[in-house]
Amino acid sequence: MLATVIEYILLIFFILSLVMIAQKLKIAYPIVLVLGGLALSMFRLFPSIQINPEMILLIFLPPLLYEAAWYTSWKELWRWRRVISIFAFLIVIFTSGVVAVVSHALIPGFTLALGFVLGGIVSPPDAVSATTILKYVKVPKRLSSILEGESLMNDASSLIVFSFASTAVTTGVFVLQDAAVSFVIAIVGGIAIGLLIGLLYYAIHRWLPTGTDMDVILTLTAPYVMYISAEYFHGSGVLSVVSGGLFLSARSQHFLTYRSRLQGANVWATLGFMLNGLVFMLIGLELPVIIKELGSVSLSEAIKYGVIITVVLIVTRLLCTMFASVFTVFISRYITTADSRPGWKGPLLLGWAGMRGVVSLAAALSIPVYMNNGQLFPQRNLILFITFTVILLTLVVQGLTLPVLIRWVKMEDRDNDLPAEEQERMIRDKLLEGSIHFLDTHFSEEVRSHEALKQLREDLEHRKAVAMHNKTDGVDHKLYKKIYLKMLDHQRSILHELNRDPHISHELIRKFHELVDIEEEILRMKYEHAS
Q1: How far is CA 91 from CA 164, 216, 241, 313, 454, in A?
Q2: Distance of alpha carbon 112 from alpha carbon 85, whole angstroms
Q3: Local structure of 370: helix, strand or coil
Q4: Which residues fall within 8 angstroms of residue 49, CB to CB, at 6 or more apart?
Q5: CA distance 349 to 526
Q6: Which pLDDT tens digits describe the chain residue by residue (531 residues)?
Q7: What are phi and psi of 195, to 5 degrees?
Q8: How far apart are CA 296 and CA 379, in angstroms?
Q9: Which residues pair with 376 in a beta bridge?
Q10: The pTM is what?
Q11: Cβ pair 342, 142 in contact under 8 A
Q12: Cα 43–48–52 angle (5° rounding)?
């Protein structure tokens, strides 16, 4: 047990080191982690770290989906709902079918049902890979919104296809009509259960005497309760988590205190980062085990199958995105669409941003080792190897070339008429004007008679005047930010010296350290573009 704990600690240090290298090189960290895991696997440094196939989906998928849903813009999701629905459902199902047909024709002894198992596994692109890469390049807002929305929904359709196909393989029974009805029930049931549990959590947060720590713990349990409940009633666990997460996220200002929101954001950011890091590292570490158990299929044949399936996936996605663009132009004659002329640049980038990752690995590893009759699941390790090859090639080839392609295409951003700095100034002005108007309208008497309230209003007026001055005179925010940060560091030095005095409370010193930290966070968020 102790050896396993030590191995996991060392693995975490290795993950952090690789992420730092990725940040230094400005490469998406999933790419570096997969390659790092692959390199580590050659030395067999972590023999105790093994993956339980039955637990992989349950442990990793719900929290990663919940975090993604929590930070997804409902406004953008609704704006691009048609495109996202097509990509997340129709294209995923079509891709699964293409992979099934190709693999059935290509691989000896590979039935159509096994083809759909493989298709359901490798059809959904990974959100983490794409969004991490997009952080390092300037990309139109619509592109990132569609990718994020698609990645939230496509896991549901792919895992439903995977589930039906796995059942067909293990039982030998598949009825198309029953599968279609079950598909609809899984979607509707999953969404309904997610909303119902989201409503229950809303009530617990809102009307029970929960504190900050309890609020954060409740948010950690929510995705698991949503996922397990939906799966128990044969609904889509993915859509349950997504719908429940979107519901609670949109109302978080009403049932969570400011402290719960701040602390929860930090906890979830750390948890999401760690889970993603572990999964991508485990992808690389699993390779020797998969190769060892390939059985009658040679390594060269397995590599050939993996490369061909990867090419099929990339080409299919590119053709689908281009067809979707043409279809949008046609259908815009009859209905209102978000963009009646999408052109070729956006579809090309969306098509190329189809890296596979966490969900594909989790689904592949969750394939049962034995079927209901006690026999080994056919071609399990070949499916795992092909999945690994698809993840590796799409991450490395598409992941490394996507930034280059984005710069080459030079797609203009037609959604943001104002630069981010202008939008920030506009929001700040609205907040200042709204605050002054609120005080004058509702508390004018109190402001006149109360010295502290009068000072508050004067401070707001002063900040408004400073904002207007900065807008017209072009103040150097970089210099302001630099000196302000040095001043805050000096305040920390003063607090450190004061803490030497035995007559001053250590708790109060810590409190003022936190206040200085909060002031720095506000400053950095306010002037994040001035660096």
Answers
A1: 18, 37, 22, 11, 60
A2: 26
A3: strand
A4: 4, 7, 8, 11, 282, 285
A5: 31
A6: 787 788 888 888 989 999 999 888 888 788 888 888 888 877 777 766 766 666 777 888 899 889 888 888 888 888 888 888 888 888 888 999 999 999 999 999 888 889 999 999 999 887 666 666 776 667 777 888 888 888 878 877 887 888 878 877 777 666 667 677 877 888 899 999 999 999 999 999 999 999 889 999 999 999 999 999 999 998 888 889 999 999 999 888 888 888 898 899 889 989 988 888 887 787 777 777 778 777 778 888 999 999 999 999 999 999 999 888 887 777 777 776 666 677 788 888 888 888 888 778 778 877 877 777 777 888 888 998 999 899 889 988 988 888 888 888 877 766 666 666 777 788 888 888 888 889 888 888 888 888 888 898 888 888 877 777 666 555 567 888 888 889 999 999 999 988 888 888 888 888 898 889 888 888 888 777 555
A7: -65, -40
A8: 10
A9: 370
A10: 0.83
A11: no
A12: 115
- Residue identified by tokens 């030079």 is 410
Q: Which two tokens stand for residue 135?
A: 């952080």
Sign of CA dihedral 474, 479, 485, 486: negative
- Name the CA dihedral angle for 481, 487, 492, 496, rounded to a multiple of 10 degrees: 160
> CA–CA separation, 344 vs 319, rounded Å?
11
DSSP letter, residue 376: B
Give CA–CA dist 21/33, Å, rounded: 10
Q: Which two tokens stand for residue 218?
A: 């409740």
Give 143-156 as a 3 state SS string.
Answer: HHHHHHHHHHHHHH
Of 110, 87, 126, 56, whose CA–CA distance to 386 is shortest? 110
